Amino acid sequence: MEQSEGSVVASKQQERTAFLLLTVVIFPLMAVLIVAGYGFLVWMWQLLFAGPPTGP
Known about the structure:
The chain has 56 residues and is mainly alpha-helical. Helix content is 70%, strand content 0%. The protein has one helix and no strands. The radius of gyration is 22 Å and the shape is rod-shaped.
């Protein structure tokens, strides 16, 4: 395999570190932020426009 002078090839250690960072930190954090953001939007919508939910 030839490498051009400007290209950098990631080592297995760098790939493993990036994978662990994504799976352990980034993806769970994104999931929590998305769910919390949706909950906040629903809360604000009810507060400003729709009023509290009521039963039958």
